[in-house]
């Protein structure tokens, strides 16, 4: 408004110089005055941007590149109020690194009113027992939460979650895992999706698990949730089983192209559509593994341990273990003991991998500690070929 007022009166002044309505006494051009005014405005704008970039770098820890990007989203005119905001955040446990992360993600947080807008949220989270490190995590990851309405969004959302989960600790976990969508759609979306799950007779324990452990999946669009639930049921997964929760999350987080890429990786080892269907219905997470992990574990189990590729489809949990830290060390130990005739070839691969470290050590390391270099094989320091075991002997060993 001030700029418009100035422009108006400069034009009037330019047209009236020289007397009361008479011709001007010298050729002062109105457009020249307008250019001068625009030039001054540009200078002021440049000064404000320069100050903003400088403040973002020196007070908020942003890099020059990040500060330049952030300055396009926020303009700071003076440091007083923003200094107060940063002091307030630090007083509530946020580190300089937290503040840098917060401002990078949401530069406009710097113009929020420290006492009227930000402080009430910080005090609320403190009142429900949110530890300082969790408060720092929530606000630095999702700074928009400090700008949304406490009365209309945060408190109603908290009240519903507290009634559903019966625990402030679990509610805090949800806030820690909440995506930006939680802040945008909030309680309305949660109520709608919980109602849908109940309509499908999903157990309350599964609804609670989705809420706490897979927060983002419970906040998808309702029409998308219906499609995914129906798809899970088509896989033959019982909605009353805990695996239902995993299946929902996997399907929600896996795009069509990624799903097809994982199928292609399994099919390279001879899996059919029904094999993939079976593996998913047993352990859905097998479709979240990287293609590299799938290929490396399948190659070791099939080519090194003589397992049948299709047999792994009925034991997909094998694919979830670490190849270097668990699968290879245990398989090499068992393979050596089989070659030496100390144990029979009746061990199930999944059973071997599912054992605790203590149980495996007791059954296969401590019990056969008289076998030379067995511990070195277990720790990956020696291969079986280093011990003189020939290929023909190794080829005879086969795990189920």
UniProtKB/TrEMBL annotation:
One of its GO terms (biological process) is DNA-templated transcription termination. GO terms for molecular function: nucleic acid binding. The keyword Hydrolase does not apply. Keywords: Transcription, Transcription regulation, Transcription termination, Transit peptide. InterPro entries: MTERF, MTERF_sf. Belongs to the mTERF family. This is Mitochondrial transcription termination factor, mTERF. It comes from Handroanthus impetiginosus.
């Amino acid at each position: 408004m001030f700029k418009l007022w100035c422009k108006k009166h400069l034009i009037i002044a330019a047209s009236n110089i020289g007397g009361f309505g008479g011709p001007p006494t010298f050729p002062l051009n109105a457009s020249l005055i307008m250019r001068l005014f625009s030039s001054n405005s540009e200078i002021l704008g440049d000064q404000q941007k320069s100050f903003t970039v400088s403040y973002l770098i020196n007070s908020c820890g942003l890099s020059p590149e990040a500060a330049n990007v952030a300055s396009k989203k926020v303009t700071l005119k003076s440091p007083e109020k923003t200094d107060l905001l940063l002091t307030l955040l630090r007083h509530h446990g946020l580190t300089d690194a937290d503040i840098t992360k917060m401002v990078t993600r949401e530069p406009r947080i710097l113009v929020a009113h420290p006492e009227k807008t930000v402080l009430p949220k910080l005090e609320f989270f403190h009142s429900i027992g949110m530890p300082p490190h969790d408060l720092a995590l929530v606000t630095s990851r999702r700074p928009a939460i400090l700008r949304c309405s406490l009365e209309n969004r945060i408190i109603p959302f908290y009240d519903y979650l507290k009634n559903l989960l019966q625990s402030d600790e679990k509610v805090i976990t949800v806030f820690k895992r909440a995506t930006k969508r939680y802040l945008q759609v909030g309680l309305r979306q949660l109520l709608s999706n919980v109602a849908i799950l109940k309509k499908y007779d999903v157990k309350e324990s599964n609804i609670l698990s989705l809420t706490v452990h897979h927060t983002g999946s419970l906040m998808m669009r309702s029409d998308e949730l219906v499609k995914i639930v129906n798809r899970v049921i088509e896989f033959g997964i019982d909605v009353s089983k805990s695996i239902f929760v995993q299946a929902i999350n996997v399907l929600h987080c896996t795009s069509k192209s990624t799903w097809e890429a994982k199928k292609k990786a399994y099919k390279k080892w001879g899996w059919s559509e029904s094999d993939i269907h079976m593996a998913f219905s047993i352990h859905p997470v097998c479709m979240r593994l990287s293609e590299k992990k799938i290929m490396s574990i399948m190659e070791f189990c099939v080519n090194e341990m003589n397992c049948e590729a299709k047999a792994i489809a009925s034991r997909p949990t094998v694919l979830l273990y670490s190849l270097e830290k668990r699968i290879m060390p245990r398989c090499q130990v068992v393979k050596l003991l089989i070659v030496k005739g100390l144990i029979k070839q009746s061990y199930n691969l999944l059973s071997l991998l599912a054992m605790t470290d203590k149980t495996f050590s007791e059954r296969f390391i401590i019990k056969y500690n008289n076998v030379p270099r067995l511990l070195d094989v277990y720790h990956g320091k020696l291969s079986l070929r280093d011990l003189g075991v020939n290929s023909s002997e190794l080829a005879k060993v086969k795990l189920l």
